[in-house]
User: Fold this.
Amino acid sequence: MSKDEFILPKDFPQLRNDTFLRAARGEETEHVPVWCMRQAGRYLPEFREFRAGKDFFDTCRSPEACCELTLQPLRRFPFDAAIIFCDILVVPQALGMDVQMVPGKGPTFPEPLKEPEDLQKLRVKVDVAKELGYVFKAITLTRHKIEGKVPLIGFTGAPWTLMSYMIEGGGSPTHSKAKRWLYRHPEASHMLLKMLTDVIVEYLLGQVAAGAQALQVFESHAGILGPVEFKEFSLPYLRDIARRVKDRLKESGQDVPMIVFAKDAHYGLEDLSQSHYEVVGLDWTIDPRSARMLLVVAGIMNLTGSFPEEQVNHC
Assistant:
């Protein structure tokens, strides 16, 4: 057993660069904070060398490996934040689904959800600490190893994005199977989305307890939905996650900024800006100035532009 196994989520080194956190809270900063959203960054040769020959999810379950991959970009670039190396699909795994990362194909569910009855195969009560404790250990270890250089961001996939993977069985250009569920099985869809939300809330709270200093929720498949479907099957759950996490954190006097990144949801910017998150992420198809103007007019002063390999604050 590694000595790193005994590192506890306390006595963290003092943070030396809080530019990202101040920007996320709408405070003035000396420069525009920049961070790399591609986790450790598959663009790095040392990343590819470290990952070579290793099973992806085995790597995710190794706190030492996740720590190393998270720290690699910081050794090369003066970023203002780091995001823990992991994957959004560890949540479906926690619910009892088998997920494999197939070379040349990507994430694959050998037995995806096909009918509402398949929801009975999922764990009704998830012990998040048991099923996802390896993520918490990775965060704690990384907070210590990062030595206060920059803040550490934790993250999760959003309910609709996870649901679409669980039904499609992997990536899809249309997500037609998942969308068909929304129309044919709205009650079962909401049941699944609520199950995922409950697990995600505990997962994010566990990340903060482990040492995460900011949280991001990835609604990567928002653009698959139209405005009407987004308001029914995505937005309410995004809001519920932020509200519940913040209420629980407030009880212990904690203030952790939260970012919502709904890819291709240009139609939902105004709604997202009022969804209890401090920061709204933009994908590369949205002009940051136009988005900022829209949200400033709506009375929202916090805005982050998110581009393929970096996220830049435009406060």
About this structure: The CA atoms of residues 246 and 252 lie 10 Å apart. Confidence is low (pLDDT under 50) at residues 300-315.
